[in-house]
Amino acid sequence: MRDIGLIKSHGEEFIIAYRVLDIVIIAATVLIATSLYVGDWGIYYVLATCVAVVCFSIMAELLGVYNAAFVSSFRQTFAPILLSWFCAIGLVLILAFGLKITDHFSRVAVTIWFVATPVFLSVYRLASNKVRHSGRSNSYTQKSIIIGATPAGLALAEEIRSSQHHGMSLVGIFDDRSSDRLPTEELSDPVCGSINDALAMAKERNFRHVYVALPMQASERIKQVINYFSDSTARVYIVPDFFTYDLIQSRWRNVGSVPTLSIHDTPFYGMSTFVKRLEDIVVASLILLMISPVLLAVAIGVKLSSPGPIIFKQDRYGMDGKKIKVWKFRSMKVMDNGGVVKQATKGDPRVTKFGNFIRRTSLDELPQFFNVIQGRMSIVGPRPHAVSHNEEYRQIVDKYMLRHKVKPGITGWAQINGYRGETDTLDKMEKRVEYDLNYIRDWSLWLDVKIIFLTIFKGFVGKTAY
Predict the structure, then answer these.
(1) Domain region containing 392
(2) N or C: which end of the chain has fewer CB atoms below 10 A?
(3) Which residue has the higher pLDDT, 11 or 275?
(4) Rounded CA gap, 366 and 381, in Å?
(5) Shortest CA distance to 158 belongs to which of 94, 97, 213, 116?
């Protein structure tokens, strides 16, 4: 069997170097500061350095500091570097005060460490990028062509033209199709010639990089073009036509020596899973402590409003479509949890007077913070629907079940954008799903913080919550 070989990530050497240098700078800065003002690098400074390194590394990873797409752009990494360092020093300070060991630190040495480290982290990156960019020119080694005026080819052309940090210049797009078959309205510049013209230029060493952006179904033609350019010294790349698919958290994965690409995936892998869970536990615990008097008051109100249990537990779909029990304060005289569950509507006779109040103010959702602590739900995520509604809408709303790539949430991107409460039309449900999928596609810790913040002002009360 032929050895396929492992596909490596371009630029991963630089990323590894940046990770190592960041750790070295953080440690070296505190070592120099303590040597000058204290005389030695005591155990407390060693522990503080370890905490800072771990925290900075985690935050930098989550904020994209080591993202291959941004690592060559100082402007795109400057703010995340500062935020990562602020989180690191914040954790060090909290631990020092909490453990009452601040007396073991020199204020001057610590201040120098806190201030100088982000300066050094930024300066060496800026210098590195300047050196790398200064070595680039519009010479033979940086010139590129694209084979195929396809959506993928046009997108690559626009990226090369608009992003200088790639260090590439576009010679042109080459395509064998006649002018009447080309997307002339989408072309910024006319096609430069045929593939044979491009091959002749490659043999003359007029460019270094060849990007083959032909449609994926034209596999035989792609092999033929690659074989043509094997008679030159140009570097040949294939541009997969992933624009055909609606990618959600897509990522490469090697199964042994075979590279694969996920089309629909969850954003929570590795460290992001830990951060999301930590966020849920910390936020849910703080909120439960603050709202405990409210929980007691609402529980009494529910008990006095009508006969029945205080808490209503309904089957919902959780992450990966697994059934979970979602808790709510009971707001109705009935407890539908079967094959047919009717959504509450305006003036619904099933809703008690007190139930109407807690539904409109979202107080009925407060027990779900216990679901978050249990790990069934998250603070932020797509709102869970009754199982019967899932089975109904998965048949008529495109990509509906992709909402379950993450845990359901107490609040979500759809809710703060006005899609909360009753979804009495197909259009409303489609818009809710659209916002939910956008959340999954664009997830970050800071997006969660934004949603939580906006929920305080516009996510609790809604005109469509009955």
Answers:
(1) 271-458
(2) N
(3) 275
(4) 15
(5) 213
Indicate if the pLDDT at residue 350 is higher than 80. no
**Model confidence pLDDT, tens digit, residues 25-35:** 999 999 998 88
Q: Which residues pair with 264 in a beta bridge?
A: 248
- 84 & 101 share domain: yes
Burial (CB count <10 Å: 0-12, 13-18, 19+), residue 441:
middle
Q: Does residue 366 contact residue 327 with C-beta atoms inside 8 Å?
A: no
DSSP 3-state helix, strand, coil percentages of the chain (rounded to 5)?
Answer: 55, 10, 35
Asked if the structure places residue 340 within a domain, the reply is yes
Instruction: Provide the 3-class DSSP secondary structure of residue 178.
Output: coil
> Do residue 276 and residue 387 come from a single domain?
yes
Within 8 A by CB and 6+ apart from 151, the residues are 241, 243
Looking at the fold, whether 389 and 315 belong to one and the same domain comes out as yes
> 320, 340, 323, 341: which is closest to 332 by C-alpha?
341
Same domain, 59 and 157: no
Q: How far is CA 404 from CA 265, 394, 400, 441, in A?
A: 10, 11, 9, 12
pLDDT confidence tier of residue 2, bands split at 50, 70 and 90: very low
The whole-model pTM stands at 0.70
The pLDDT tens digits of the residues spanning 97-122 come to 988 888 888 889 899 999 999 999 88
CA separation for the pair 171, 393 (Å, rounded): 49
User: Under a CB-based contact definition with an 8 Å cutoff, are residues 466 and 356 in contact?
Assistant: yes
Same domain, 367 and 284: yes
CATH number of the domain within which 225 lies: 3.40.50.20
Q: Are residues 51 and 152 in the same domain?
A: no
